[in-house]
Amino acid sequence: MVESLKLIWSKIPQKRVTVVLLFVAGVLSQHVFDVYFNAAKLLAVPRIIPSLVWSGHFLFVYFLSSYIVLSLGIISNRIELKKELPYKYVSIGKPETADGLVAVDIQARIVLNDQMQPDIQNFFNRIILGQPYCPKCSRPLEVWRFRTYP
Length: 150
Hints:
This protein folds into 2 domains: 2-78, no CATH class; 89-136, no CATH class. The protein has 4 helices and 3 strands; from the N terminus they run αααββαβ. The chain has helices at residues 2-11, 15-37, 48-78, 120-125, and strands spanning 89-93, 106-109, 127-129. The chain has a 3-stranded antiparallel sheet with strand order 1-2-3. The N and C termini lie far apart (77 Å).
């Protein structure tokens, strides 16, 4: 909790400037209030205590609204949406030849948008055969070098 408060506090922009500006706004608002409602003179020195109260209210509202806005921003950035996977297919089987020299992957295409299991026809449309490979060393057949004898 304290760590999150520190993180949000560090992201509030220009805290010193804001405090000074809101203090001035508090003094001016108290002076305008006195002139308008209490019939004080326009250039009279404003009272200090009510000015500090107004400034405190402005500061509280500013920091509370900044805290809420920045918290929501941080939360929305941390919510991870569905990302694309680095691969498109997942292996669902690995049949081998009877002598164990060649194997092939049966792969199904991954579709993240499905909300429920696909029907049989869609599932079969997503199945492909992978490239043949050696089951012992997992090297593809293209990499194998065959030695020819004269």
